[in-house]
UniProtKB/TrEMBL annotation, chain A:
Bilayer topology term: Multi-pass membrane protein
Pfam families per the UniProt record, alphabetical: BPD_transp_1
Domain of life: Bacteria
Segments forming domain ABC transmembrane type-1: 97-311
Transmembrane domains' residue ranges: 36-66, 101-122, 134-156, 184-207, 238-258, 290-311
Organism in which the protein naturally occurs: Streptomyces fuscus
Transport is among the record's keywords: yes
Annotated family: Belongs to the binding-protein-dependent transport system permease family.
Descriptive protein name: Sugar ABC transporter permease
Record's keyword terms, sorted: Cell membrane, Membrane, Transmembrane, Transmembrane helix, Transport
Keyword Ribosomal protein carried by entry: no
Length: 332, 278
């Protein structure tokens, strides 16, 4: 990890040195400055892109959220925190928060355990596991737009595949309006999200499982541990860093959920599947209440920030470098 | 011996489980393929069975239309341009992060990694206003530049990790041979980093190919529509002709699935590395 471009260690304070040494120190200082310039100049393209197109918009949203503004010209009608108070009085937005929480809880309780079970199943020598792995992960590489349209048609009330299959096996009662039913829309959406995303988490877990040394399982086996005990006391603790990352990605995904919902229901019926991003889109791009929509962006930003910092502070702190599992060793 | 017999006895439920889940995963895709071979009339009469007769018109009509191929072209152009831009900018930045010690390095790196945590949706609205004021709406650059910008954090993190693994002795040798930092970067580091560059490129291509939100904001005119936008529009336009929409969906899936089957290793490796490094 040593580098010839690292600045040299300075030997002592410049002022106490005799003239030749002071010259050398000045030379070193110049070289350090040059070194800094070289290093930073490599950053310029990324920094410009990131600054202008990521940081600037986020900061502008922070500013615009305090104005009543239609999105044309500069915001001038300063209204303080009114957008925010209005936001937290809006049952739709409060509903967005609850729905976000619901999706997070469903993911933690069902989707991720399911992904883990599949990862454990496919980590064994079972026939066709390469095919299963590929099939389970395939939906992840499809666009949300494609997935959304596909399932909007599969769950089309009365005429989609889902209702036909349920009719066919004599479970008519379970079918219904799916995305059109206010009480069923979130459950149906969660089904589709599981179809699309569990394979990604499964792949993370598989990578983690493969990095657990076989000797540990063998040792546990010799000690007389049953399958459940081995899973509980060997697999799970060693997979913990991967699990923590996967939970993090799942939550961030729920906070920003947009594409799938927009394509399938656009938030309906009657806001019952609306997410924060959809509400923001409605106000910002359909109703031209840009100041208000910016306030929604700011709250999303705040939730992500608080969650990310808290998660890093309290959950991920145990996973310093080297503790996380990667596939790199095998690949490169 | 006993262990082996035990595992063999346990594999039947395992197989059943995998077949069941495999069916749930595969049937929606298979159903779309088969429905595309029916007329919409046939589909409503015979929703589940095989087509009789097999109708190829849905597929051939779409393949014969310029619209579909234009969208494939748009998606490709935007994905390639995004990838070149994000990988080039990230490689330079990652090189500087990995091989230089300079004041402000940690602050800068933290700034980039913070980008990972923030949903794109947060920046969408002001980004749209910015692009409008820069006259980049209905312009492919309006999608390419922001996509590259939002791809930077992940790409930089993966490449930095890789660049740091390259031994310092190589750098000293290159310096002795008269290579400056740029020469070392270009002639030694990049050729050595080809697997990592492949990984991040595949990630960038897939992300761009599937992006929906940004093209939805930027492209009003159909000229530059990408495949995800096209799918949504097609469904709206032909909502009565269900079989045709299925055929369109299948054709829209093919490039992504084909790319996945070719680049599976890079894609999965990149996602895993990205997630665990981030």
């Amino acid at each position: 990890m040593t580098s010839t471009f690292l600045p040299e260690k300075r030997t002592g304070p410049d002022t106490d040195l005799p003239p030749p040494a002071a010259d050398a120190a000045r030379g070193r200082a110049r070289r350090r400055a040059m070194n800094w310039l070289t290093a930073v100049s490599f950053q310029v393209p990324a920094l410009v892109l990131f600054g202008v197109l990521v940081l600037l918009p986020i900061m502008f949203a922070l500013y615009a959220a305090f104005f009543r503004w239609g999105g044309f010209g500069m915001p001038e009608d300063y209204i303080g925190v009114e957008n925010f108070t209005r936001l937290f009085d809006d049952p739709v937005f409060i509903g967005d928060l609850w729905r976000c929480l619901l999706l997070v809880l469903l993911s933690l309780a069902l989707q991720l355990p399911f992904a883990l079970a599949m990862a454990v199943a496919l980590n064994q020598k079972v026939r066709g596991r390469a095919v299963y792995r590929m099939l389970f992960f395939a939906p992840y590489v499809l666009s949300e737009a494609i997935t959304g349209v596909l399932f909007a048609m599969i769950f089309a009330p009365g005429e989609g595949l889902a209702d036909h299959v349920l009719d066919g096996i004599g479970l008519e009662g379970l079918g219904g309006e799916w995305f059109a039913d206010p009480d069923m829309v979130m459950a149906t959406l969660f089904l589709v999200m599981t179809w699309k995303y569990f394979g990604f988490h499964m792949m993370l877990y598989l990578a983690g499982l493969q990095s657990i040394p076989k000797e540990l399982h063998e040792a546990a086996l010799i000690d007389g541990a049953g399958p459940w005990q081995r899973f509980r006391n060997v697999t799970l603790p060693l997979l913990a860093p991967t699990l923590r990352i996967s939970v993090f990605l799942s939550v961030i995904g729920a906070i920003q959920l947009f594409d799938l919902v927009w394509v399938v229901t656009a938030g309906g019926p009657d806001h019952h599947s609306e997410t924060m991003a959809v509400t923001m889109f409605q106000f910002g791009f359909k109703r031209y209440q840009v100041g208000y929509a910016s306030a929604i962006s700011v709250v999303m930003f705040g939730i992500s920030l608080v969650f990310a910092l808290a998660y890093q502070r309290f959950v991920l702190r145990r996973d310093l470098e080297g503790a996380t599992t990667t596939m790199r060793g095998g690949k490169q | 011996m006993t262990v082996q017999r035990k595992t063999r006895g346990r594999t039947l439920p395992l197989h059943l489980l995998l077949i069941g889940v495999g069916a749930l995963m595969g049937i929606p895709l298979l159903y779309a393929v088969i429905s595309g071979f029916k007329s919409t009339d046939q589909l409503s009469r015979n929703p589940i069975g095989l087509p009789d007769p097999w109708v190829t018109g849905n597929y051939t009509d779409i393949l014969a239309s310029g619209d579909f191929w234009r969208m494939v072209g748009n998606s490709t152009l935007i994905a390639v341009a995004t990838t070149v831009l994000v990988v080039a900018a990230s490689a330079l930045a990652a090189f500087s992060f990995a091989r230089f010690a300079f004041r402000g390095r940690e602050v800068l790196f933290t700034l980039f990694t913070m980008g990972l945590m923030f949903p794109f949706a947060v920046a969408a609205l002001p980004l749209f206003l910015l692009l409008r004021s820069m006259d980049l709406l209905d312009n492919p650059l309006g999608v390419i530049l922001p996509q590259a910008a939002f791809g930077l954090p992940m790409t930089i993190i993966i490449l930095r990790g890789f660049f740091r693994q390259i031994p310092g002795e190589l750098e000293e040798a290159a310096t002795l041979d008269g290579c400056g930092p740029l020469g070392f970067f270009w002639r030694v580091l990049l050729p050595m980093a080809r697997p990592a560059l492949g990984t991040v490129s595949v990630l960038a291509v897939v992300t761009s190919w599937n992006n929906f939100f940004l093209p939805l904001l930027v492209f009003n005119e159909p000229t530059w529509w990408t495949i995800p936008i096209g799918v949504q529009q097609f469904q709206g336009q032909y909502s009565q002709d269900v079989a045709r929409v299925f055929a369109y969906l299948v054709l829209a899936m093919v490039p992504a699935l084909a790319f996945y089957s070719v680049a599976e290793r890079q894609l999965v490796g990149g996602l895993t590395a990205g997630a665990t490094k981030g």
